[in-house]
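#random but structural
TW: two for the price of one
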Amino acid sequence: MAKVVFENVYKSYPGRRAEDVSVASDISIPKIEGKTNHPLQKSSNHSVSVLRNINFTVEDGEFMVLVGPSGCGKSTLLRMLAGLEELTGGNIYVGDRLVNSLPPKARDIAMVFQNYALYPHLNVYDNIAFGLRRTVNQSLKSPWLENTLTGLTRSLPKALRYLSAQEKEITKRVKYVANLLQIESLLTRLPKELSGGQKQRVALGRAIARNPQVFLMDEPLSNLDAKLRTSTRAQIVQLQRQLGTTTIYVTHDQIEAMTMGDRIAVMNEGKIQQIAPPLEIYHHPVNRFVAEFIGSPPMNFISVTYVAPLTLIHPQFRLTLPETWIKPLQGYKEKQLLLGIRPEHFSLSTSSEQNLAVVVDLVEALGNETYLSVHLAEEKNTTLQVKISGDKAIAIGESLHLAIDPHKIHLFLEDTGESVGITRVGFNK
């Protein structure tokens, strides 16, 4: 097991035509240790920058989730760690080893892919054993004659097979992993005879069998149905805690990120936006992107004017803030801000100066809760998502009044999207 360190990591690709690419000539690309005269280090003109200034550490035994929209660079970062992509700049350490120049097989890393990547002509046993036969401890390596006999008799009935010391150790490891994943009954099947969930467990088994320092998982659940995704998600978390192996997990699904990771790294446009435990990111987003991306339905945003000491003014309502906002809002007098409020922090109420008059556009009744899509009564272009209890029946076109919980609001700068008062009191971390 080992910690993983990303130190000032950059990644760029040469652009095909100057008019079609994002010019990254303003980026200072650091030297890569262990590499010289890298073509992308010579000149970054007309190159497409996909990762910029990536700096963070995954602690030994930690489950880190990289989450972000498609194209944000999260899978590229994972592939760079695995050795499948070259760095443009910076350094990557696994434990105390700089791995920039090491080939993938020398990095002691196991990767689980989105499409399983199982060998179709090998049964489950041989798929799991495949990597072990190439990375087995040197002290267990058998003479060529033993290896030849093992290979020639592998397809014979079990009683007639010749097992070398190496193959006995591999068999022991495969059976341990199969028992761990509850796939003992599948060892003789081919991949085409397995369901999606079973294939995913075999792919996990192949990674676990190698006992690597680091597990890498690139959207491994995206091909599974919703019910199977939920159960497999829980199984991966349980296995990671049982094995204690450092794990980096890539997903675009915020539910996976919130439920699986010890910490989450939110990425967008090749940059890390925020790294923190799940609930801290949910309750204390550092900017509008993180606030909107984490949470389902997403956070609502309303443009308001701040009037000192504690009033937010909108043409349809006036909201008085708790006193905990006095210090964070110093210097923002008469400034336009974005009021952020999550769907669950609205409640049905009556007409009042502090409440929002809205009209219902869409109702999604789920039984235990109901999602509403509404617009402000006097601003049809301002739409909001609301989550309420499923006990009350709501009709499309109905007029409602919504109260905002002032202790659960977020404020952001309109121009930069940065959070105002990120360290404020009001939420339990």
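TW: number two ↓
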Amino acid sequence: MRKIKIKNMDDFAKVCGVSRPTISKFFYDPHSIRKSIKNKIELSLEKYDYYPNFYAINQNRELTKNIGIVVPYLADPFFAEIARNLERKCITAGYTPTLFSSHGEQALENNILDTLRSLKPAGVLFAPLGRYSDKMKIEKFCKNVPTILFDSNIEDLGAAFVGSENYSFITQTVEYLNSTGKSPYFFEMRNPANPNANKRRNAYLKIMKKLKLNPEIIKIEGKGWNFEEIAKNGALKLLRQNSIHSDTILCSNDRLAIGFLSACHEMGVKVGKTKDCDLRVASNDDHPYSRFTSPSLTTSAHDYESVSNKAVQILFELIENGGKLKKRQETLYSAKLVVRDSA
């Protein structure tokens, strides 16, 4: 017997013996129809191995169950971790999340926004490139699509922003390092790609001034998002020239610190907080791999759970209110110092 080929939802409705509107209701909310009809449809799904094109279905709806999640660089484990948290929370709430990465490129970020508009999502959780973003493009997008910004804030854009308080990262690491040894030199890229780098440098200058200490900033060359490689090459150059005039280094982020630790290992420089060590190294972010470096990395940690919970909570509120809130909200979470073996 020839197998019946199901091309679309109309064909599926016919073989089910159920009306087309009822089939649509089932795929939108299976519990909105009678149990006997629901069971009948489920048996037919299994029998005919049919799975609808939800993107096509949703394009015909005014309000979809799709959620867009956009990050600047998915290969960065920080963004991978927070995206994982956001995805799980959307799925649990009955939404279908779609994850996009702009790979550090403004043109690609703009293309993603165009793609999302065509998908007509219920809402979008968006971590923009920040200073490299096309702000006019984002402003136009946010006027048409319910959007919550996270990680990188662009003033007055989106219905809300949820992120981490950068000053709390630097304050905690600087105060800890200063109380347990010498004050730190700050290690960063001269042209940083990540959107929060400048805020962290400014926070370092501010807390050093508050503590009446002399700030020292080490700027290494390199562009793009290959932070570990850039940091390793920069640190190797400094170590070979014997031009690091401190025994305490605070890296702008954990990925730079991982590269710095690799350079120290290659040069035979011992890192740690015991008396026989040459350098102390600390950082910021609590990168998912920072506990597994050698030595394990002392750092200030993001509150991944709180940031993702709050971002999703506000987005769902925004969706339920027809895409509008009474006023733009900004929520910042403080970092938490994690002391390990590197400092």
